[in-house]
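FORM 7B: Structural annotation worksheet

SECTION A. Query
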Amino acid sequence: MANKSKLSKTGLANNIEEICPTPKLLTKIGSGLLLLTICVILLFSYFIKYPDVIIVESNIISDTAPIQILTNTSGLFYYAKDINETYVDKGSPLGYVESLPNIDTIIAPVAGIVNFHKTISYPQYVTFGEELFYIIPKISEYRSYAYVSEVAVSKIRIDQKVIIKLNDYPFEEYGTIEGVIESISKQDVDENFLVQIKLPNGFQTNKKKEPSFVYNMYGTAEIIIKDIRLIERFLNNQYN
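SECTION B. Predicted structure
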């Protein structure tokens, strides 16, 4: 009877082992899955490339500076309505200053886009020599400039791609401006080197939008040095 009971227990134990693997087998399976996961991650990190970038502040200018429009006398200034952000021809009347009983007409000295850089009442009292607004002449070319450190400049090469994000126009909405490195200064200024960036698409963003340009605008330039593998970036961060 005792032998029969032992046999029953042995058989039950064998059945349990067949249904439920031993902890040793579970450990082997877990180790195998972990090793497989690591191999998959390493494989993807080898093939996935990530851009190595240098981020610096930059400013954007045009080949033609805006023309400042000043008053020639003091008095009440009446400007032509709806001229802000509109194109005017050379010689177009922009408004007049009434210095009782004299009237001084403001004429556009060049063709371009009128830009009010401040709020102007209608009419508004102005004094002699006061700045009224700007006229931005037709622009044929834009450029960006940035200063980079001595360490960073050693990585920069002509024709490297640059992505510019404007401070006043969120890139999530307006997009970014594409540029390429055009020249690198050989002489430093306070241990920083001037880099000139050409904008092949002008002031148009990658979202096909063209923000309103103001001379000497500022933004952030991301100079793409090269595309490196994800695993390289991880190793560089670990050992540098």
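SECTION C. Observations
The chain is about 25% helix and 40% strand. Confidence is low (pLDDT under 50) at residues 1-7.

SECTION D. Sign-off
Analyst initials: ____
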